[in-house]
């Protein structure tokens, strides 16, 4: 087996030149030519050097600092851990993986700059990233134009609906979260609901999705409020919801510190109806920030948050428990579903490279789209040409916070 000794320019890739990683070089310059060279080397008492093994370059642009660092930090740690594991095990058919990672701070302009660098300067074969919906949507056109597989870690449905040729994503969508929440509300007899949402990319998108699907679930939206990413007091908006006619429950669509503030203010204004949050708060830091006010909050989330509490016959348990144990041992930090999104993205991408038998971006893209029954932290994934997320609502688990911890709602 031989490996890639050099990398063609991005222009050559766009023109259709294919790199044949892991493939033999028989036929290159002709077998007879190679034999002749070997003979000359033997006469001179020399040994032909094996071509240097090339790293498989995978890019990442993540929000490791800034207001979305609670997303990017566990994602970065997860990718570092997985790359080290891959290389310690011999790489991919003998070739090492090299992660080229940039911190975009969740800023769409920075994300575009780093995406361009990954494409033109770093010559990566695929990219994982987009911690936020805003940064993801900023780079999607660049990867589509360059023909580079991109696996997003953000939540909004617009990332993969409509389907984009080169773009995939690992988290559940905001639309799925709305439907999971509304299904539970109806089961509890709630039909008159208030919505409050952040004005960031994720919050705005989920608010729109919830308003769009509410009627199909028999839900009437009796109040609709928003808050900015820098707001530190949401009591005016929550007071408006408290006074909404017939209010039976409230749904907050948001991420970052905003949902924790909403949760504390929710109790402070005397709201006594149930509060639902989105999967955008699915980390232990939300419970810590919200404090006792988080008691009783429900949200849809991945099974990762309740790994030990899953039944032993749950097919997802070995995956989520294995990742949780490895991550917490390696980092000393509690696991979050956001790191799980990066886990799934990396595992999907590496499996696609192995199946493709190549590091040609087009072959990797095709192999990704052919993913079937991949069990990840988000659930069982099956991609198709019409579905580049590969999950359905059943992949969500409904959780409730009790005694400062996650519990499964049966």
TrEMBL record:
It holds the Pfam family Peripla_BP_6. CDD domains: PBP1_ABC_RPA1789-like. Gene3D superfamilies: 3.40.50.2300. Residues 56-404 form the Leucine-binding protein domain. Keywords: Amino-acid transport, Signal, Transport. InterPro entries: BCAA_transport, Leu-bd, Leu_Ile_Val-bd, Peripla_BP_I. GO terms for biological process: amino acid transport. It comes from the Bacteria. Belongs to the leucine-binding protein family. This is ABC transporter substrate-binding protein. It comes from Pararhodospirillum oryzae. The lineage of its organism: Bacteria, Pseudomonadati, Pseudomonadota, Alphaproteobacteria, Rhodospirillales.
């Amino acid at each position: 087996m031989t490996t890639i000794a050099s990398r063609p320019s991005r222009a050559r890739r766009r023109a259709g030149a294919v790199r044949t990683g892991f493939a033999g070089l028989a036929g290159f310059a002709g077998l007879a030519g190679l034999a002749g060279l070997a003979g000359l080397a033997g006469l001179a008492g020399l040994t032909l050097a094996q071509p240097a093994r090339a790293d498989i370059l995978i890019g990442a642009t993540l929000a490791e600092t800034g207001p979305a660092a609670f997303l990017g930090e566990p994602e970065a740690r997860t990718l570092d851990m997985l790359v080290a594991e891959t290389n310690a095990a011999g790489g991919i058919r003998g070739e090492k993986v090299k992660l080229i990672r940039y911190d975009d701070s969740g800023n769409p302009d920075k994300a575009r700059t780093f995406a361009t660098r990954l494409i033109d300067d770093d010559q990566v074969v695929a990219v994982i990233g987009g911690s936020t919906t805003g940064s993801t949507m900023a780079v999607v056109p660049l990867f589509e134009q360059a023909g580079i597989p991109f696996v997003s870690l953000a939540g909004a449905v617009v990332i993969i609906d409509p389907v984009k040729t080169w773009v995939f994503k690992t988290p559940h969508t905001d639309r799925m979260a709305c439907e999971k929440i509304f299904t539970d509300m109806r089961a509890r007899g709630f039909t008159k609901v208030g919505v409050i949402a952040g004005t960031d990319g994720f919050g705005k998108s989920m608010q729109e999705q919830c308003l769009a699907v509410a009627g199909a679930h028999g839900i009437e939206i009796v109040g609709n409020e928003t808050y900015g990413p820098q707001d530190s007091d949401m009591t005016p908006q929550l007071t408006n919801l408290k006074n909404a006619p017939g209010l039976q429950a409230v749904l907050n669509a948001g991420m970052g510190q905003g949902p924790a503030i909403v949760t504390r203010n929710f109790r402070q204004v005397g709201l006594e109806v149930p509060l639902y949050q989105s999967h955008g708060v699915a980390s232990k830091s939300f419970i810590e920030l919200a404090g006792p006010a988080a008691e009783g909050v429900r949200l849809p989330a991945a099974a990762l948050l309740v790994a030990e509490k899953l039944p032993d016959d749950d097919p997802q348990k070995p995956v989520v428990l294995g990742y949780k144990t490895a991550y917490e041992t390696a980092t000393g930090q509690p696991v979050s579903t956001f790191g799980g999104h990066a886990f799934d993205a990396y595992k999907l991408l590496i499996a696609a490279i192995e199946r493709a038998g190549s590091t040609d971006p087009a072959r990797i893209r095709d192999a990704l789209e052919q993913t079937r029954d991949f069990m990840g932290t988000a659930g069982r994934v099956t991609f198709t040409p019409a579905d580049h997320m590969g999950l359905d609502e059943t992949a969500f688990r409904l959780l409730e916070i009790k005694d400062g911890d996650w519990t499964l709602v049966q």
